[in-house]
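1st attempt posting a full record on here, be nice pls
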Amino acid sequence: MAGAALARAAQLWSLLDEMAANEPQAYRRLLQQQRAEAELFCAPPEPHLCLRARPAGGVGRPLFINVCSWKRVPAPEGPADPTPVSAGPLEEASGEGDLYNVIDVAYNPDVLQKGQENPEKTEHLIHLTLKFVEERCNLTLSHLYTTESFKLKGSVVRMQQRLRGRQRPTPHLSQNIKKELTLDELLHTMEAEDYSNASVLLKEESVMQSKGHLIEEIASTEMPEKLSTPVYEMITVKDANKKPLKIELRIELPMVSSVSECDLRISKDDIVIEVPGKYKLQLDMPELVDEETTMAVFNKGKRILFITVLVAKPDP
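the predicted structure (as tokens):
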């Protein structure tokens, strides 16, 4: 496999050198095209609006749906074609002491722009999104929903991690079909191999039809693993003037025997603790914190994880 990749790389460089010498204008156009495609691929998803929904019957945790704009998601090919959508996993989270569920759904910016220009299209897209989330997560939601005043529930970092957490299958290149490839074929083959480790989106079989339009998911339809939410306590320590100094978090992990089992991720506005196959806890920080000051101690006897992090100093 490595030898075949090196051989294709050598062939690619040879063809590029030949193009640069014989067709300099075509070579420059190729570089510009590759640069534009790289910028498009690396552009992060951005928050657009946040929906708040509840299970049918009004019983259960609220569900926040972060509707995001992402250039990596293709636009529909035509008015009658499916609307591609990328979705992250359904997660349990907590903020200000309340538990809730959150999921991120991303569309091409052009799709959302048309909605801004036509409120009816926005309403239609929201109903399609709710239906899509119901089918993808095996939920039954109330027809009533709220568009929140904020654009995103949780942190931008976590949203981007969830949406980017899918991987594309590595395409196979049969050596029995062709021994030599053209420059265009080589570029597409190597791009596919590079992107296989970079969570590239692709179309899959999950397609949901509505009366007017289709939504076509371009991320995996695999249901996320259900993990328990551990018992926890979060405290904001303040000084005599009631100025926040640090955040202290106490998490009970009775099924954990070593701190090495825990995966801790912290940003300036949220924290995620995950024990594969056992627990997962995501919390919004009550204050912006300095993640570089994080200290974590695991008490093996009591099986409790203690986390302390200082509140970030305001910008001068």
